[in-house]
Specification:
With about 80 residues, this protein is mostly helical. It has 3 helices and no strands. The mean pLDDT is about 95.
Length: about 80
């Protein structure tokens, strides 16, 4: 049986790339937050949360892209109507 959706390597590359980009973006937001920077005891927890948010965003992108590929494959196979 043919595999459906994206292959593991594609998902891994997509997820790690998205996580790295989002992590940089979210961590930059932390460093731009004057409130956090004025009270450094919040810096490490804020960075941790930013990294965790980046992981969640990466997983969401992986799911979305895999769903798009599944939909394309199902339409191509005639399982779903092409609308």
């Amino acid at each position: 049986m043919e595999k459906l959706g994206l292959d593991v390597e594609s998902l891994f590359l997509l997820g790690t790339g998205e996580q790295a980009a989002a992590s940089g973006e979210f961590v930059l937001e932390v460093f731009e937050d004057k409130e956090i920077m004025n009270n450094l005891k919040y810096l490490q927890p804020a960075i941790t949360v930013a990294r965790e948010e980046a992981i969640i965003k990466a997983v969401a992108v992986m799911i979305e892209e895999n769903n798009n590929e599944l939909l394309k494959q199902l339409k191509a196979a005639g399982v779903l109507p092409d609308q």
